Amino acid sequence: MREVVITGYGGPERLQVRERPDPVPGPGQVRLRVRAAGVNFADVLARQGLYPDAPKPPCVVGYEVSGVVDAVGQRADTDHLGREVFAMTRFGGYSDTVVVAQEQVFDKPAPLTHEQAAALPVNYLTAWQLLVVMGGLTRDETVLIHNAGGGVGLAAVDVAAHLGARILGTASPAKHAFLTQRGVTEAIDYRAGDWTREVARLTDGRGVELVIDPLGGAHWRKSWKVLRSTGRLGMFGVSAASGTGVGARLGLLRIGLGMPWFNPVTLMNQNRSAFGVNVGHLWGETGKVGAWMRAILEGVDQGWVRPHVDRSFALADAGAAHAYLEQRRNIGKVVLTT
Predict the structure, then answer these.
(1) Domain range 2-120+307-337, CATH architecture
(2) What whole-number distance in Å separates Cα of residue 113 and Cα of residue 86?
(3) Nearest CA to 325 among 314, 317, 334?
(4) Amino acid 35: pLDDT
């Protein structure tokens, strides 16, 4: 099998393809011959040494794959053999062959390509948890989606539109037309002045009921300020920390110092709430996550879940995929293909 290894912390050149023997599925496990693997910003941070959950180099990252089951272990359902599926992986996804527990495997919807199926788990589960499970977004409420053109952002647009919410989204101007076509009510250029003023203008000074923010640091403070009464702030990443070397470490310190502190009394008096989401920490909640995924798959059948793959890169070009994502050039998902 081939896999992409992070050989050490640093730039995209730290990603190298290596070969090793095929893994053998253990009890309750299935083996996939991978056709596509999702790339996420957490993978970029892991390569930069800024993602504490990731294994130490040399390591293989990757949370999601799609492919065909070619072997099963003891106590695994033999009906899986030969089926096209997608799966959640606890790292190791940047490979052409993976072994996972069978409860982490779902049938690939027939209308989706393997690239689209690999775009489902991380992005749509995160969006579902942010907007539905913890954000409680309802019809006619207003949600502000930061980085609306990213993988999670675009998935959140699908979910919010399905719920009937009004959608404000921040993104660079080149992405605005696409986002409007996808369902964003008002696209906001976060580079042109203070975006909080634009949110105030668009909401007649009232603010929004929900903000989802992957940036971190002082940016969360600004997101908190645009909440109206009963508003909720959902935090799900610290992408502003991206960088390498000593400068990145100092930047991470500044981000940490800039983070807001939420006083319980203030929360009560302002009738607001704040919460965090990290799907990578839900491995012990397979029942919940499975139920969320089934709801997402119903959305695929109904046509409102529309995973958008911006670009596919060959497994050997994982470094180029990281550079593309790091430069925030993507609209939607970036995947690797084998």
Answers:
(1) Alpha-Beta Complex (3.90)
(2) 11
(3) 334
(4) 98
Residue 215: CB atoms within 10 A of its CB come to 21
Model confidence, pTM? 0.95
Which residue carries 């959902």 as its tokens? 234
pLDDT at 335 over 90: yes
| CATH 3.40.50.720 residue ranges for the chain | 123-280
Query: For domain 123-280, which architecture applies?
Result: 3-Layer(aba) Sandwich (3.40)
Instruction: State the span(s) of the chain assigned CATH 3.90.180.10.
Output: 2-120+307-337
- The pLDDT assigned to 261 comes to 87
- Are the CB atoms for 318 and 10 separated by under 8 Å? no
Query: What is the C-alpha to C-alpha distance for residues 182 and 159, in angstroms, rounded to an integer?
Result: 11
Q: Please, are residues 62 and 334 in contact by the beta-carbon 8 Å criterion? A: no
CA 9 to chain centre: 22
Reading the block at residue 324, the tokens are 């593309």
**pLDDT band per the 50, 70, 90 thresholds, residue 258:** confident
